[in-house]
Structure formats: structure tokens, C-alpha cells
């Protein structure tokens, strides 16, 4: 049974403070969507509203065509995996996993059978009789995963499930979570503040800021075509350069940055370009050259990156970070031009 | 490697122990004395003062009352104290700070004042008979132990465990009994024992709340002492001490004493 999750126009307050602002997300059946954002942006709050532990000020939560908004938490049938595992300390691994089955009135022999099968899937069958206190962090999180999966919920939610694990285990576990989620086809909402984790595990990622969704798209689109300045900065477009169109010739647009530097951009590459726009680039999307068409710059601090040099540059359009070839090294104080590589740049509408 | 203890500190510690234990030794000695007055060291050895306790019906009756009041009062205090401690910990962020202090007031207020105000409100104000007054009075007296000791074990309880249970389909009240309570069991038992011992030894509250025909053991000891200054007093005290030691021994065997001081 796979169903979609729809979160419609959710607003939430703690006292007078609004922490979610008209938030809408839809997760298709069987899809894994991540909420990605810095600490305090409202990810956990969103999850707790969907789980039924918090009531929204306004808005709706729907699973398939069932409206959950006023349903009590224990009747929602949602599998939850917490950052701190939240295993039952007084129950064995087996009893932890069987807990949800017991609440569903499943006979003890069936419970044992299904819990054992699930423990085998996460590789913990030999530890069935241990108490949680005798498990490592990774084992605990596997038990938590098994406990949430065994009830075969239509929706799984994860709140930073890997944050307490070490780096190597984090990578292994996220692959494991993704495989289990795909095999079961369970619709999932996954919360993390780690960009790499979100991009690697998700079908789509919602980038959040201060209680709002800034963009909800596939990792590829987010990484290459951010919709606004916030998302652009978030995915590494460090340089946001305001530009003005000064001439149009067919698909070629001539635009000017502060200080008069002119660039020719093709609308075949960037899509329609407005009169006012922002050119966003990562440091490796700007090449530092001695001469040519580009943005004149005075070079500052140089950093050796291995594959290139990186320069902090002063330009009329503000401070810009750009990379330069290893074959052409500049000393601090040198003047150069920064040439954008169109395939590495994107164009933002300043309205967004 | 053993920690080095300064000789003066060691001597001081021994003095403190002697000071604490001396009265107990004297009481035990006096209870065995074959004289009709309290004396130490005992002159001659007899157990007749212990036998005497059981011949005086007032001791028997008040002992029964003391046990009943201690068990019912402590039970009542836990019935109020556990939910209160739960609420104070679970909703800590949303609650004013003074609310927690409210529940330890019976410890902060001088006992004699507390006893007198109980007399004014329960016995005189509400007109309740002696027996229920005693139970309510003792429940309030030991409420701070219930709230604080249960609260201490709730403070280290991770409430996301409770949410995990709810998300797995367990309704909130059932979750409290199947998930929260088993994890604070030690705290509840510790609270019960501390409260029970406090109640069974209490004088200052009981002296206001006992009435004609119904009394507690410590009050009866006082009453007896006013008339007879014989070693019976010492032997009752020894018995009361043995009950306390017995309770402690059970704790030590089942849970380990350290958890009372943790
Ligand atoms: N119980 C609470 N009372 C008041 N404010 C809260 C509470 N929980 C969270 N907040 C605030 O709400 C905002 C969103 O919190 P949260 O959803 O936990 O963020 P995230 O999970 O993205 O780090 C934060 O600014 C946080 O300080
Ligand atoms: Mg969070």
C-alpha cells in the first residue's frame, strides 16, 4: 500500500512566535523527500505536526485522501525514526521491534515471526535478546529502523537519524535506509541539516529557511538551477553578481555589472534573460585570466586547492571568489579579469 | 591505588560515626535493663520490656494505626505525586518555575506550623474524623518525597521514547503505564520507602491530628513516657528502629542503597 503525503498551507506558532509559514509539500507515493535546512528552521516542527504531536495553527496534513489533521498521534499509523533512537530501555531488541505489532493485536507467535524477519533484514537477529543499553549507536538506529518498518506504515519519517553516528557509519546507514525504503516502496519524509546526506538519499529535496520552503526539487535541479538567492548560496553559488541588460541581439544578451564590466550571455544556454538579473557562480565557474572579456578584479588572498588556485577578488561589484588555473599563478595585488563559464553559472530573478 | 585520607579527617569521621551511633547503642542497652526506670549501662539483662509492649493494648493499636496511615498516606501521596512529577518534567518549558517549589512546601514550612494549619483546615475546617485527617495530613507531609524522588528519575527519562510508543499505536494513557512507569520504577519505590519511613516516625504533624481513641505509635510513646519512665519506651524505640532497618535491608537487597542517595 503506497500513498502520497500532502502538507497544505501549514502554519505553526510557539506562543507568539511563528515557526512555520504557509508551508506546503507533497510527497508522491513511494517517494523519499528530504527537508533540508539549518538548525532552527522548522524541520522538526513540521515532522511533529505530521506525526500528530503538535497541532498546526492552520493548514492540513493528508495521507492519500485521508485527512490526518485532527487525528490523534497514536491513530496515524506513521513510522518514526528519531535522532536519539528513542528505544524502549526496559525492553529487549526483539520486544522493541514487536511493540507496534503488539499494539495492533497481532498474536504473539506472528509477532515473533515478523519481528525476527525484520531483525534479519537489518542484520541484528543475533542480538534479539539484548537490552538497548548493550548496543552501539549504529545497532540502536538499526533497531529503531526495524521497529518503525515492521508495522508496515504507509508513511515513514526520519528526524536527523544519522546525526549521532560517526562519519563512516553515516554513509553506510543512509545507503541501508534508502535500500529498505525503496524495497518497501514506503512514502518517506526525511529531515537533515546535511546537504550531502539529503542529496544522496532523496528523490526530491525541500530546502527550508525560517519556516518556509525555498525550493522543492530534485537534487540535480537544486544543484544546477537554484530558483533564488538563498538556495543558490546554500548549494555553493558563493558569488551573486547583480547585472543589467544593456543590449539584445537575437539570443545574445549583453549585460553590465556594477563598474561597467560587460558580458555576453546566450539565452539558448540560460533561458529567457530579464532586464535585471543576478548572475550566480561557484568559485570554479569563474576563471581568473590575465586579459580578455570579463569582470576586472584586483586579486587578494590565494589558496591552493590542489586542482586549482582560489583567489579572493575585489571588484566593482563587490568581493568575489574565483578559481584560476595552476599554470597561471597570480600574486596578491595583481589585476586580472574574471571570466564566467556559462555552463557553470545560473541566472536568478532578483524578485525571488 | 587507594585515596590518601588525612589522619585528622579520619579521626573526625570516626567521631561523627560514634556521635551518630551512641544514642542507638544507649537505647538498645536501656531496653534490656532489668530495672523499672530507664538507665544505661543496663543493670541485669531481660527481654520483659519487649514482652510488655505486647501486653499494653495501646501500643498494639497505635502500631496498627501507624502502619495503616503510613501505607495509605504514602499511597495517596504517590497518586498525587507521580502525575505531578510527570507534568512538571514533561511540560517543563511551558510551566512557571514556582510550580515545582509548591510541591516541596511541606518540607520548607516549619513542621509545627504545618501541623497546626492542617488541624485548622482538615480537622476543624472540613470537620473530617481523625483517621482520614491523619491519612490526608501524612500524604501532604510526604508529598515532597514523592514529587522530588519520582521527578529525579523522570528528569533522566527521554520523553521521545514516549512519543515512539505513541507513534507505534499505543494510546497516551497506556503508554504511561507500559513505557513510562517501568522506566521510573526505581524512583517510585525509593519515593515510597522514604515517604513511608518519614510517615511512620512522624510526631509533629500527628500530634495535632490524632484525637480521642486514635493515635499513632510515636505519639503513644510520648504519652506513655509522661506516665511511666520505664524501659518499655526504649524497647518500642528499638522495634521502630528495627522496622526502619528492615525496610532498608529490603531496599539494599533488591535495589542497592546507593539509589536513595543518587
Ligand atoms: N517547545 C518549543 N517552544 C518554543 N520554541 C520552540 C520549541 N521548539 C522549537 N522551538 C523553536 O521553533 C523553531 C523551529 O524549531 P525546530 O522545528 O526544532 O527546528 P529544526 O528541527 O529545523 O532545527 C526554532 O526557532 C526553535 O527555537
Ligand atoms: Mg530538529
Automatic annotation (TrEMBL), chain A:
<feature type="domain" description="ABC transporter">
    <location>
        <begin position="5"/>
        <end position="235"/>
    </location>
</feature>
<keyword id="KW-0813">Transport</keyword>
<dbReference type="GO" id="GO:0015697">
    <property type="term" value="P:quaternary ammonium group transport"/>
</dbReference>
<dbReference type="Pfam" id="PF08402">
    <property type="entry name" value="TOBE_2"/>
</dbReference>
<dbReference type="InterPro" id="IPR050093">
    <property type="entry name" value="ABC_SmlMolc_Importer"/>
</dbReference>
<dbReference type="GO" id="GO:0005524">
    <property type="term" value="F:ATP binding"/>
</dbReference>
<dbReference type="InterPro" id="IPR017871">
    <property type="entry name" value="ABC_transporter-like_CS"/>
</dbReference>
<keyword id="KW-0547">Nucleotide-binding</keyword>
<dbReference type="GO" id="GO:0016887">
    <property type="term" value="F:ATP hydrolysis activity"/>
</dbReference>
<dbReference type="Pfam" id="PF00005">
    <property type="entry name" value="ABC_tran"/>
</dbReference>
<dbReference type="InterPro" id="IPR003439">
    <property type="entry name" value="ABC_transporter-like_ATP-bd"/>
</dbReference>
<dbReference type="InterPro" id="IPR027417">
    <property type="entry name" value="P-loop_NTPase"/>
</dbReference>
<comment type="similarity">
    <text>Belongs to the ABC transporter superfamily.</text>
</comment>
<dbReference type="GO" id="GO:0043190">
    <property type="term" value="C:ATP-binding cassette (ABC) transporter complex"/>
</dbReference>
<dbReference type="GO" id="GO:0022857">
    <property type="term" value="F:transmembrane transporter activity"/>
</dbReference>
<keyword id="KW-0067">ATP-binding</keyword>
<dbReference type="InterPro" id="IPR013611">
    <property type="entry name" value="Transp-assoc_OB_typ2"/>
</dbReference>
<protein>
    <submittedName>
        <fullName>ABC transporter ATP-binding protein</fullName>
    </submittedName>
</protein>
<dbReference type="InterPro" id="IPR003593">
    <property type="entry name" value="AAA+_ATPase"/>
</dbReference>
TrEMBL record, chain B:
<feature type="transmembrane region" description="Helical">
    <location>
        <begin position="67"/>
        <end position="86"/>
    </location>
</feature>
<dbReference type="InterPro" id="IPR035906">
    <property type="entry name" value="MetI-like_sf"/>
</dbReference>
<feature type="transmembrane region" description="Helical">
    <location>
        <begin position="176"/>
        <end position="197"/>
    </location>
</feature>
<feature type="transmembrane region" description="Helical">
    <location>
        <begin position="98"/>
        <end position="119"/>
    </location>
</feature>
<protein>
    <submittedName>
        <fullName>ABC transporter permease</fullName>
    </submittedName>
</protein>
<feature type="transmembrane region" description="Helical">
    <location>
        <begin position="12"/>
        <end position="32"/>
    </location>
</feature>
<dbReference type="GO" id="GO:0005886">
    <property type="term" value="C:plasma membrane"/>
</dbReference>
<keyword id="KW-0472">Membrane</keyword>
<feature type="transmembrane region" description="Helical">
    <location>
        <begin position="131"/>
        <end position="155"/>
    </location>
</feature>
<keyword id="KW-0813">Transport</keyword>
<feature type="domain" description="ABC transmembrane type-1">
    <location>
        <begin position="63"/>
        <end position="251"/>
    </location>
</feature>
<comment type="similarity">
    <text>Belongs to the binding-protein-dependent transport system permease family.</text>
</comment>
<keyword id="KW-1003">Cell membrane</keyword>
<feature type="transmembrane region" description="Helical">
    <location>
        <begin position="235"/>
        <end position="260"/>
    </location>
</feature>
<keyword id="KW-1133">Transmembrane helix</keyword>
<keyword id="KW-0997">Cell inner membrane</keyword>
<dbReference type="InterPro" id="IPR000515">
    <property type="entry name" value="MetI-like"/>
</dbReference>
<dbReference type="GO" id="GO:0055085">
    <property type="term" value="P:transmembrane transport"/>
</dbReference>
<feature type="transmembrane region" description="Helical">
    <location>
        <begin position="203"/>
        <end position="223"/>
    </location>
</feature>
<dbReference type="Pfam" id="PF00528">
    <property type="entry name" value="BPD_transp_1"/>
</dbReference>
<keyword id="KW-0812">Transmembrane</keyword>
Amino acid at each position: 500500500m503506497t500513498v502520497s503525503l500532502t502538507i497544505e498551507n501549514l502554519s505553526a506558532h510557539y506562543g507568539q512566535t511563528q515557526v512555520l509559514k504557509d508551508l506546503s509539500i507533497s510527497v508522491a507515493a513511494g517517494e523519499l523527500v528530504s527537508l533540508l535546512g539549518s538548525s532552527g528552521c522548522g524541520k522538526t516542527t513540521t515532522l511533529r505536526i505530521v506525526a500528530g504531536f503538535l497541532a498546526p495553527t492552520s493548514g492540513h496534513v493528508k495521507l492519500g485522501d485521508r485527512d490526518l489533521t485532527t487525528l490523534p498521534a497514536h491513530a496515524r499509523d506513521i513510522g518514526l525514526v528519531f535522532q536519539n533512537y528513542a528505544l524502549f530501555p526496559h525492553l529487549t531488541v526483539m520486544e522493541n521491534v514487536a511493540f507496534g505489532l503488539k499494539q495492533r493485536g497481532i498474536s504473539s507467535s506472528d509477532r515473533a515471526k515478523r519481528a525476527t524477519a525484520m531483525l534479519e533484514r537489518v542484520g541484528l537477529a543475533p542480538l534479539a535478546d539484548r537490552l538497548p543499553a548493550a548496543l552501539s549507536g549504529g545497532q540502536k538506529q538499526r533497531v529503531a529502523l526495524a521497529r518503525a518498518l515492521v508495522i508496515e506504515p504507509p508513511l515513514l519519517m526520519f528526524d536527523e537519524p544519522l546525526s549521532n553516528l560517526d562519519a563512516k557509519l553515516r554513509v553506510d546507514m543512509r545507503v541501508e535506509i534508502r535500500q529498505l525504503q525503496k524495497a518497501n516502496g514506503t512514502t518517506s519524509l526525511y529531515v537533515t541539516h546535511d546537504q550531502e546526506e539529503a542529496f544522496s538519499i532523496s528523490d526530491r529535496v525541500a530546502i527550508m529557511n525560517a519556516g518556509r520552503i525555498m525550493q522543492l526539487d530534485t537534487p540535480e535541479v537544486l544543484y544546477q538551477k537554484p530558483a533564488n538567492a538563498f538556495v543558490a548560496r546554500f548549494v555553493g553559488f558563493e558569488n551573486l553578481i547583480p547585472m543589467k541588460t544593456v543590449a539584445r541581439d537575437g539570443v545574445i544578451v549583453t549585460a553590465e555589472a556594477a563598474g561597467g564590466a560587460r558580458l555576453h550571455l546566450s539565452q539558448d544556454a540560460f533561458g529567457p534573460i530579464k532586464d535585471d538579473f543576478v548572475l550566480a557562480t561557484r568559485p570554479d565557474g569563474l576563471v581568473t585570466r590575465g586579459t580578455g572579456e570579463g569582470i576586472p578584479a584586483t586579486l587578494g588572498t590565494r589558496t591552493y586547492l590542489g586542482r586549482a588556485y582560489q583567489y579572493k577578488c575585489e571588484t566593482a561589484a563587490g568581493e568575489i571568489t574565483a578559481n584560476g588555473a595552476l599554470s597561471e599563478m597570480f600574486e596578491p595585488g595583481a589585476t586580472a579579469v574574471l571570466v564566467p563559464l556559462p555552463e557553470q553559472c545560473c541566472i536568478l530573478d532578483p524578485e525571488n | 591505588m587507594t585515596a590518601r585520607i588525612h589522619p585528622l579527617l579520619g579521626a573526625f569521621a570516626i567521631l561523627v560515626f560514634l556521635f551518630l551511633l551512641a544514642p542507638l547503642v544507649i537505647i538498645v542497652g536501656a531496653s534490656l535493663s532489668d530495672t523499672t526506670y530507664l538507665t544505661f549501662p543496663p543493670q541485669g539483662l531481660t527481654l520483659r520490656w519487649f514482652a510488655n509492649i505486647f501486653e499494653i493494648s495501646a501500643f498494639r493499636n497505635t502500631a496498627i494505626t501507624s502502619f495503616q496511615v503510613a501505607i495509605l498516606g504514602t499511597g495517596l501521596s504517590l497518586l498525587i505525586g507521580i502525575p505531578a512529577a510527570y507534568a512538571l518534567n514533561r511540560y517543563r518549558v511551558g510551566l512557571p518555575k514556582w510550580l515545582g517549589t509548591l510541591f516541596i512546601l511541606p518540607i520548607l514550612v516549619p513542621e509545627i506550623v504545618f501541623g497546626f494549619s492542617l488541624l485548622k483546615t482538615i480537622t476543624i475546617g472540613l470537620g473530617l474524623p481523625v483517621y482520614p485527617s491523619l491519612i490526608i495530613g501524612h500524604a501532604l507531609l510526604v508529598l515532597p518525597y514523592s514529587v522530588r524522588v519520582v521527578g529525579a528519575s523522570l528528569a533522566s527519562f527521554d520523553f521521545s521514547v514516549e512519543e515512539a510508543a505513541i507513534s507505534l499505536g499505543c494510546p497516551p494513557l497506556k503508554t504511561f503505564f507500559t513505557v513510562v512507569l517501568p522506566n521510573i520504577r526505581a524512583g517510585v519505590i525509593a519515593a515510597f520507602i522514604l515517604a513511608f519511613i518519614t510517615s511512620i516516625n512522624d510526631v509533629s504533624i500527628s500530634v495535632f491530628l490524632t484525637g480521642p481513641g486514635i493515635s499513632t505509635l510515636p505519639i503513644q510513646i510520648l504519652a506513655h513516657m509522661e506516665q511511666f519512665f520505664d524501659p518499655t519506651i526504649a524497647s518500642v524505640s528499638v522495634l521502630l528502629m528495627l522496622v526502619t532497618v528492615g525496610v532498608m535491608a529490603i531496599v539494599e537487597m533488591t535495589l542497592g542503597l546507593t539509589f536513595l542517595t543518587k
